[in-house]
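User: Assemble these into one structure.

Assistant: Restating your components, then the assembled model:
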Amino acid sequence: MTDLAIELIGICKSFGAVAANRDIEMKVAKGSIHGIIGENGAGKSTLMSILYGYYQADAGTIRVNGKDTHIRNSQEAIRLGIGMVHQHFMLVDTFTVLENIILGAEGGLVLKHGVKQARAHLKELNKEYGLEVDPDAVVGKLGVGLQQRVEILKALYRGADVLILDEPTAVLTPQEADHLFRILRTLKEQGKTVILITHKLREVLDITDNVSVMRGGQMVGNVRTCDVDRAGLADLMVGRKVNLQVDKAQREPGEVVLSVKDLNLVDRRNVKLLKDINLQVRAGEIVGIAGVAGNGQSELLEVLAGMQQPSTGEIFYKGQNLGTLKYRQPKAAVLRKLGIAHVPEDRSREGLVKAFPNYENAILGYQCDRSVCKGPLYSRKALVARMNQLIKQFDIRPDNPMLRVGLLSGGNQQKVVLAREIHANPDLLLIGQPTRGVDIGAIEFIHRRLVELRDAGKAILLVSVELEEIMSLSDRILVMAGGQITGEMAGKDATAPALGLLMGGGDKH
Amino acid sequence: MKFGQPSTLPRWAQLTILPALNLLAALLVTGVVTWVIGENPLECLKILVHGALGYGEGIGYTLFYTTDFIFTGLAVAAAFHAGLFNIGGEGQAYLAGLGITLTVFAFDKVLPFWILMPLCMLAAMAFGAAWAYIPAWLQARRGSHIVVTTIMFNFISYSLMLYLIGHQLIEPGSQNPTTREFGQNAWMPAMQNILAGIGISIPSTPLNGTFFLALIACVLFYLVVWHSRWGYELRTVGTNEHAARYAGMNVTKIIILAMCASGALSGLASVNELLGSTHRMNVLFTNGIGFVGVAVALMGRNHPVGIILSALLFGALTQGGLDLSFAKPMITREMVLLIEGLVILFCGGLENLFEPILASFFKRGK
């Protein structure tokens, strides 16, 4: 059986009472691109961490090139020819590409020899796989797409025959993703094996030869990609029929709720983060902002939510100039009282306090609200009752208001944030990455909720890096690149390639 | 196991078995040290326990020290819940002594007990808070690290107070660097007098009314930190500052207030020392209580109940240790400090020493 690069037999792994992997069987053919797809928390990352030696399996066998092996750490994985490209790059920003690549494989005390050899080897690899990376460029100055290629080079340099990529397209524009896929195909032609972990159905269908589907820690399907279609894969992932299309009736938007005029944001080092932003959001309208992560969307949300002060420009909310208001409390608190709710992009960094129980998270930002606290002390009973209500309305599981929020799944954590913000009955909802790290079942639910809110006449400003999400939810789409708005189109006319071009537009890379 | 990583142990085991194991380990090492210098460890332990808890006077002294440690422990915990490590309890308590002394000197000839006593407490809290305010402001507004600044402020307070006591506040004609005795209307009633009022007779010790104040402070601490809006904001800032900013909390203000509350709590330890026991201010009267507070808070896991228990432990160690050094000439005051240091090391610094072993034991049991 030497035509298999990797074979996993009966892999089990538990963390405490949670079985992250149960009896996993998987075969990866040599020289193929193998997709692993599944919702967040399905156990994909755990499985790959076992293969790469970060975790030890509780039971089961790993065969590499037909031989039983024990992979105790990542050095052993590398020795067996397994390389990994992480979702969050493991690069030293201030080093050059070359320095990064030899990191951990310097070859002796004197750096010079190693560097010389590495340079020659790198040139070869670069040519062979069409990677087009300058070995002397400083990594921190490269774009995300190029940094990813450095990661790939790093793995190849160490002699990887099997390359694991963890959600590689999460940070790329559609064009950059296409480039990556071309590279992956070249790798395959050269006889390398690629394992692609993703939750995007389109990618799996586009590029893989075989696909393994995981759900709830189990392998629920190993199929040839040409034998399945989109709906079939989605159903396998979720375990029931899912509706990928958001049902949304046409609706005439009402008056202008949010109006931004010539907004600029300059940071301390004089870098322009936002340039001349003009936009409007009307009642009963979802305005989507598309763009690759890191092009100013996050800053725009933070400025609008009052967490950052704009350098110049004006923001009008229901006709009122927010810049001329008097602020006795932090701006974010005042804006919230005016009816601007904010679901932040990064829920675990900003939207939640993971060490707090659910019921305490349900008042974050509303801790001074009359409905929450009348006297000097909270009534724990009232807070728990409030949380129970949210749990029922948003189907948060497990339905325990006392549970620490960090123990919930990503989707349920997001529901806690969304429930809290919608409960406040805002007129304007600022929402960033509503479904990042959220499973398909919860995505459906969250999208429905957002459309309901829109239909109830609320204004929604949606920032997302998921084009499909932007296209299916938005009435109007703005595209941001390099801190500017580079284009606008109606939601029903938008296509991925058209948006992709605009997304690359102002980008310096 | 990384610092601050949540334990996989059940909570009850974290709160019982783990501290017990740590304490046992500290005692074992202490035992070895005692044995090396030629004393019988078991006998020493017996003297220590008896000295702390074996007779009325011993218990009185133990509870007196406990009172100090409850306040300084609560002080460290208050700052800790805001994510700040206040090492400056010592200096804050010391400065609080200045507040008390100035107030007493100004008013002990004119004001009656019922006005003077609250005034002195307020002065202690105000001076302690003020001494904490400066590092707090520097941290919140300028990013100077609170650990570094509070340590520096301890040293500044030593020099400042030495000068003030030695040159300005010293009792005229005295050879010792100490102030004059406070008027009796500034004395916190001693426990033996309070209890005598309801017909209970106990031996005469420095234990005084401040002890009840410490217990009340624990209850208030619990209510404020876990049941009030302010405590909610405090804990949010302490666990996730980004979330606090997102929620529209004034992080700077909360940091400064938390440090001031911490300094005020440290200051109350001086009420126990000066108004409750010595009735005058001596040089270095704080004698390390601020530092022990760090260990007390660590060991008590920043919860009032835990703080009371660990304050009791350190109170007993202090008192029993003193008795031990009287009984055994080989065991000097420095040896007693070593024992305390070991307990702090095992219970505070190495609090998770046995966690992995215990965790695997629990896992197998399942």
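Chain A has a mean pLDDT of 87.
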